[in-house]
């Protein structure tokens, strides 16, 4: 296709040929001016040379001659210069005769007519040129627009994909769900025909990387590479170097090892790096020949690896936060999180003029389970208790484990009275039997309730509920206690008494008194119950009801029980060595913490041996509640005592389970009826006594009724067939020397 200048030359030549004859015109030049203002002469006819750039239009050799025809083309198209024939030679030689006459008018007219046609043709050419330039510009603009649209679409897809990943992270999705989403985004942006694998460095073994998310990889390959060496294939190189690795031109299969089939043609691996630590790698591979990953694709994969690093760092931070705020065993909020929520609840209650309450729960007999069945069983029990507590609360409430066997429940928009009802429901759930370590065990619980008021802080509320809980623990008949202002002073006294008790036990300041066990038929003293006594140097006589619970709370009960056992057996040995005391026996109360102590049976055997007494001279008293809390261990401990020859009594019968099945299974030697049966108003239920006493006879158990304070009570019980009695009428607790004297007296 001719160029624009070529078409112009052809047009000029055609016009001049039509307007002039060879005889008349020696040559024709066209002077034009370019965009820079430089003039150029184009040769159209004759032997005239083409002028060089910069040649002036007013060349004295041509343009200054009067016979030269100069016709402007119009606009910026320049001029047409016609040189007469007779002067062509002179023009060619650069010189012209200035005296020539005007050119013939015919030539002039023809040239001017032809020039007008030429000007029109030039305008047409100019229009074509502009149209072509416009089309070129439009095509280039369209190409740029298409490239821009493609780039914007790709960028929009990437941004939307990153936003999807960020939403997954911030919404609390699991880390595996986020990593699966990242692999899906890789496939969506780079191509569904690709094979994608995401491996993480094993936290437990830094030399191993585990495949956690993938696409397009055969299941067998995934299974084989689930836990592969860190340096495995191309991804291993990325893990080692911390940089993008690319394998192309058929070399990917060898570089990737066995991760994908040997037919892989191209692959790239990008490390997942957070805080300068390589956490994993994303590998993308293709099987089609000639497939290459562009710079944009490489940048995209690197950006998605960054998103994976953010997700992993977020998951690690979330795990650390969870470890700081959540109890690792039960999954409940821990003390730190509870205190934070308490502070928020208190602030909200002040702002809204509302109220919230805190329930403080401490398990009863948990230490027995832990010591007798092991810590694994104890953990299992705590997990089940936590599940039960959660299941009995609203979603707005917070149940936390404070540590050990202590729990706390924050009840929002709940006053202390309503909170006490919730607490009783929670305690009832705790008391239901629990399968632990292949055994059914029963624990109890005590709860204290306190509510927000005045300027109380979160710590104040916890302290108040804790104090109320200890009050509940001191009262076996009441598992829930509400906080009262005086409890703080009582707690201080409790703390002081606990310290004093430890000193008294270590310093031998405790004593043992004995209350007679009397044959109701003959009035003879057959034995005595050992009762610990504490005469405080400043407080005076401290009631066992005050310091026994303290001993159980602090763990001193084992040492205290061992002291009473050893002391009472020594005193019994002295009685039996004297006249009339050969057949006496001693009855010793055993608390749950002592009964389930692994050393208890050994302590009994050692104490009997040290006192030189037969095992039949010892009667161990246990309560129903302590036995029922740990049926399996209870049965095992009592069986071991019977193997020694020690007798066992069920104490306070009628205040607990009163189960005939348990009476039969445990094979008790003695049944002691609680004194509460004699205190009923207006008078005792004697028919109930008859039933219990008949039961004792049928099961070959010796019957003992506690709390006899009047002659008419003794007479009625004797008539009903009760064998032994105990109470102030028959003898108050007394020192060892006094009991021996009483034993020598026989009265009716």
Would you summarize the structure shown here?
The protein is an alpha+beta fold and 748 residues long. The chain is built from 24 helices and 26 strands.
Which key phrases capture this entry?
748 residues, alpha+beta, Beta-Lactamase, Alpha-Beta Plaits, 4 domains, 8-stranded mixed barrel, 6-stranded antiparallel sheet, 24 helices, 21% strand
SSE inventory with pairings:
Elements: H1 4-19, E1 25-33, E2 39-45, E3 69-72, E4 79-84, H2 88-92, H3 105-170, H4 175-190, E5 195-201, E6 208-215, H5 219-224, E7 227-229, H6 233-241, E8 245-247, H7 252-256, E9 266-274, E10 277-286, H8 295-325, H9 335-352, E11 357-364, H10 366-373, H11 375-391, E12 398-403, E13 406-411, H12 416-431, E14 434-436, E15 439-441, E16 444-451, H13 458-474, E17 480-482, H14 487-507, E18 510-519, E19 525-536, E20 540-542, H15 544-554, H16 557-577, E21 585-589, H17 592-595, H18 600-611, E22 618-623, H19 624-629, H20 631-644, E23 647-653, H21 660-666, E24 670-673, H22 686-698, E25 702-706, H23 711-720, E26 724-726, H24 736-743
Helix pairs in contact: 1-3, 3-4, 3-8, 4-8, 10-11, 13-14, 14-15, 16-18
